[in-house]
Structures are given as C-alpha cells and as structure tokens.
Give the backbone structure.
Amino acid sequence: MEREERKLPVGIQSFEQIITDHYLIVDKTAYIYKLVHTGKPYFLSRPRRFGKSLLLSTMKAYWEGKKELFDGLKIAELEKNNPDAWKPYPVFYFDFNGKNYQNGRALESVLDGLLKVWEESYQVEAEAGLEERFKRLLKTASEQTGKRCVVLVDEYDKPLLETMENEKLMEHNKAVFKGFFSTLKSEDAYIQFIFITGVTKFSKVSIFSDLNQLRDISMSMDYAEICGITEQEMKDNFGPEIEQLAEEQELSTEECFEKLKEEYDGYHFHQKGKGVYNPYSLLNALVDREFDAYWFETGTPTFLVNKLGAIHFDTRKFSNGSLYATKRMLKDYRDDNPDLIPLLYQTGYLTLRDYNAPKSVYTLGFPNKEVEYGFLESLLPVYAGDVGSGSGKSILTLTEHIEAGNLDNIRKVFIALFAGIPYPTNEDPFEHDFQSVLYITLTLLGQYVQCEQHTNAGRIDCTIQTRHFIYIFEFKRDDSAENALKQINDMHYADPYAADNRKLFKIGVNFDSKTRQMTEWKVEEQ
C-alpha cells in the first residue's frame, strides 16, 4: 500500500507559505491570541532555529488581517465573536536574519533598505536620520490607515552576536539601536503592538532600558512552550512520520520515541514548563528518516568554545550538576560578564534541569545528546589540540582500539591526547585541562562509557564496556599507576562483573603535571 506523502516545513519560516502550500503545521495560534489581547510590548528569547521567525511571520499575517490563512486554527475559533478581529493594521517587520554585519555600516544599510520600502508604500519623502524617518513613518501610517502600528523585530541581536569579537563594531551597532529603537517609546501613541525576538537579551542595549514597560516572556510559565514542539504535539501531528522513521531504523514505535526524546527533547524554559523538542532537528529527522546532529551542524559555537578554553573551564561541571544560575542572570546578558553560563543557556547549549525554590536557583545541564556530543566535539580541539583523524588521537580511532581490545594502542591515544594540551602563558591550570580532556574524550565514546560511577564502596573513575571487553580505569595525577590499581582492587570495583564472560581489564593511569604527560600505565587482567 502506497504511503500518503505529507509535507513537513523543514526550514520554512513563512506562515503564509506553510498554509498555502499545504505543509503540516503545529498550531501555536492560541498563544498569539493571548499575547495580542493581554499586552502590548513583548520580548522573547529562544535559541536559533527554534521557530521564532515562524512565530513572527504568523503574527504578521494575523495583524495584516489575512483571516483565510487561519481557517481551522485555534485563533479562528477564539476570534469568531470578536467584531474587531481581522481588521488590517500597518505592520513594520524588521528581519535581521541573513545579513553580514562585519562591515562597519552594515546595520545602517539594512535599516535604510527597510525604511525605503515603507516610505515608498506610504508615499513618505525620505529625510535625514534613520530614527527621524522611522518616527515619520509610524505617524503617517497610523494617520493614513486610522490604525495604530504593529512593530515586529526578528533576531534583533544578530548584529551584536556576529560582532562580539569586534568590540568597537559591537558598540557602534548598540549606538545605532539606541537611536533607532528609542522611537518605539517616543512614538508610543502610534503603536498598537510590539514583539521583539532574539537569542539573547543584552541588558545594556537601549531597547530594554528605553522600553521599560517591555514584558520579557522568555521564562514565563504561560509561554514556556510557545516555540519548540512538546511530546504531545509531536505525537498528535507526526504519527505517520514517526512510524516511518521507526521502520527505517528497525525500531519499535516506543523505541523510536525514546530515541527522539534522547536526541532532541529536553529544552525547558520554565521550572514547571513541559520539555520541548528542537523543531529543526525533529523535522529533519522525520523527513530524512534517520538520526543526525541537524541543529548543531547549522552553526558551531566558535566564540563560546574559545572563551571556555581561554578561561580553562572545568568541563565536568556540564554533567555533574554544579552549574547554577538565578533567573535574573539567565534573562539578562552583559557582554562584559566573564560568566558564560547565561549565554550558554540563551543560545541553547544548556537548559534548566532543576530548581531550588527556597533559593530561587536553577541547576543547568545539556538538554539532549545532540547538543552534548556536538558541543563537546567542538571543545575537544580547544583543550587537546589537533584531534583530526590523521592525528592518531581521534575519537573514532580510540573507539576502534577499545572494540578490538588493543591496550597498547589505547595507551598511545591517551599519551597523544594529553601531550596535546596547550601550555598556558601564565598560571598553570593543568589540573582543569587534564580533567576536561579526560571527561570530553570519555563522554564522546557514548554508549561504551560510564564516568564517575558510584558503588557502595566508592566511585569508579571510568568503566568502558564493549561486546567482548570490560575496562575499569582509575586515573591519578602526580601519584602512581600502582596506587590506582590498588584502589580498584581495594574497593572491589570489578566485583559486579564477577559472573561476566567478557575479558576484564583493570587499568591504573598516572599523569605528571610537571611534564604534562601520561607517565605510567599498568594493567591487570581478570
């Protein structure tokens, strides 16, 4: 029996195109109804590729009165008794995506181009000054239509994030924003609704200081699932596609659900909010009928990984439950703040994992396997130098040796990995770098590894299991491999595998912080 072909909107950010070309859509329009009827100026922060542009495109169609596009959607039912619904308003839509802001006046050029289009539409003669032109447009559009204006700003922070490593240019773009968007406050009488989106909220940008009535809904319980796809939404809308993915991957439906959850779910934007799936990765996986790192491959966090390496961040904190932040820290990012945790959260590399209500403190961690593995792969070269396939210390090379039980080659990879740790220019942070290389390398081995495994007698540094072999590692620094092996035996770390038929290796390893090398490696077989 031939399968029905259904169209999934992978990478499509136009609401009108999704509706007119009959793509599947997850109906989020009830959120728009609530927003337009309960407030005026809003800000929403979400990671890239998370549906912000589609949300604003849907708002644009709503405010332009395109009622026919909303047939069958929740907002059509909610507005059915409202006599003022679907009357068109003048909409000013600022889209800062898809532009290169490395040029000194790129931001002004983008704003000038948008204003020219609107000036032609409303037959307004251009005058000097971007902000003056925008003020005149708001007033003229309101007077000509008899309606106050709607201002939608998509990815306002793109000109700032792209220039973070060029302080002079970033400050220039902030100044442009200060002059231009201060208009939103001075011309408030001509404005009906404002909605601004971005990845991060720069606390010193004037949009937020001037628009002091702006409501930030980024961590609001009411809007925690406004972007992204909940598990129920996934099951309600994409059942046939999930069945096809399961069949292609030779999984049961329940196994497929678990795999999707492990790879792409786990984002939380309120302590009581539901977890949401990354929509870009989820839709790509359903279309391709395979699991891959779709979101992570659309952009690597070069600036972030370089900053983490520069401050010798202890990467074990990513998974041991020791990353903390308050709501205020997570909502407002200052570019002069040395703490990168808020930026890692806002950009989607970390998410809310737990909440201590009495202290009002969040615990953060990776949302899912796609982000965890992708981010750590990007970090490893920063801590261990060249880890390409030709370097003899790649993860794939190490995996092959572990599967084959080749102890000598495993030892050589570890020697190469730790010899590649860069020397610092001042103080010696080798302890953190040593631990980070170890943690990243072992985590990237995936299903083979358990790190810092707790037993009733102690904590095993690392256990690696393959089809034919079990490896128990104990790592020491400035001690001896003999003492590492003694700890494995004294603590009876191998006892749980006494009845296991696989070959078991106990491996004691010592690293010397002065020579910055792995100096001892001792093995016992069981």
Observations:
- Residues 225 and 254 are 23 Å apart (CA to CA).
